[in-house]
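ENTRY TYPE: paired fold submission
RECORD: A
CONTENT: sequence, then structure tokens
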Amino acid sequence: MNRTRLASLTQALMLAAALAAGWSANANTAVTVIGTDNLLQQPTGTAVLGYEFVAATDLTVTAIGILDAGSNGLSSPHTLAIWDDLGNVVIQLLVPAGGGELDNGFRYLDINPLVLTADTKFVIGAYYFGGNGDSVAVATSASDYVLDPALTILGGRALTGSLGFPGEDTDEIYFGPNFRFTAVPLPGAAWLLISALGIMGALRRR
């Protein structure tokens, strides 16, 4: 293969890689809460509050966060977790008081990328104790929030009195916890790979 063809092949592969990277690098936020001030409540006792969800495509979770209603720092640390629907912990971490990156009213901690499988139920929850000064947004209608199109919320979840899996179904959806993710459509990624291989084959034949 001469230098011209090699350069063309290199450029084609770099373009395919750039397209693939651009496709997968756009970070999405699971939930945006609307009219937060009208939804805020302070838990009166120890509780784990959150919601159950399912995704239409595989998700790579990159950060987990919790609502900072005043955007002025958390008054106390909070344990956040994602469980599968059987109650097994998928990931758990502690957001320190005043810590985390503020983004649209939530404080996030980056995590090692975590893949959540499509069409599988998961539960996300945040641990609160009464009088800690941090509020949760309690939604009773879909008009209270905007959900990323890749996700479906199946209902609220709660556990009162201790730290653990929130297995109680609730009519209210608790937006204390939140997460950021990327989603890569597999057919698109496969198409890019096939295209790059086709370019290689064509240049070789020439």
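RECORD: B
CONTENT: sequence, then structure tokens
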Amino acid sequence: MAVKKFWGRMSKKARIAIITLICLALIATGVGCFNIADPPHVELAPEALWHIGGFPITNTMISAWITIVVLAVLCYFATRKMKLIPRGLQNVMEAGVEALANFVDGVAGEEKGRKFFPIVATIFIFVFANAWLALIPGFISIGFWHEIHGEEVLVPLFRGANTDLNVPLALALISFVFVEYWGIRYQGFLRYMKKFVNLGNLVGSAKQLARGKVKSSLGLLVNGAIDAFVGLVEGLSELIRVVSFTFRLFGNMTAGEILLGSMMFLIPWVVAIPFYGLELFVGFVQALIFSGLTLVFVVMAATSHEEH
């Protein structure tokens, strides 16, 4: 209370001067620690902490489990005593779910949106939670000292799950499977596969050639070659999506982790704070991009060419 009264009696200029001095002192402390602190150890692959029956338990795996547990606990407490007029945690969770539902419905429409919502929302929440939990103090800095190539290196106990290439790859494969599933579900197997393998014009060319109509046969043959090329491009684009999804999320999250580690090593405290804000924003954007692109591709797969 005494500090609060003292602060309230001070002029605006005095407050600014004190805050500036504190910031300068923290920066000076960080600069003074430049030669003392150990530089961040950059390791792209997740580090194995233990082995259970030959199966490695990595630090990113532990972080992913923590994310699942945290989300489960939040959902439990948010829905434990649900009320007609939500308050507190229930209100926050319902607002988030409603925002996601409106986003999905706005792209896919209400009928399809309700069917696509579970997978899109799950991807968004999991990526988003992984990214934000990795910014909690203790991630990367708490771990075990191991000797690697004759050098003592800190192996972190926790590491952001999104920085493990396996996690973005698994999410990309799940996205790919659901896109193909809903495409087949809405259009039927044969109609959907026509997007990749369309032999109609080639068959028609062969029939026209058998009837002696060479001119019309050549026209259909050219169109059939174009259809085959387009189908090949469509098939490659479906596979390339898996690669682009994987490396976009992995690259951005890994770069953010390295950036924060480098800034904390160079000038800790004040200078690193803006980068925390940047990573909070990047985590949200990456979750939105991953889930949003999944939603767009699902809608495109479930829509026939006539509807396009």
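NOTES ON RECORD B: The two ends are 66 Å apart (CA to CA). The longest strand covers residues 143-148.
STATUS: closed
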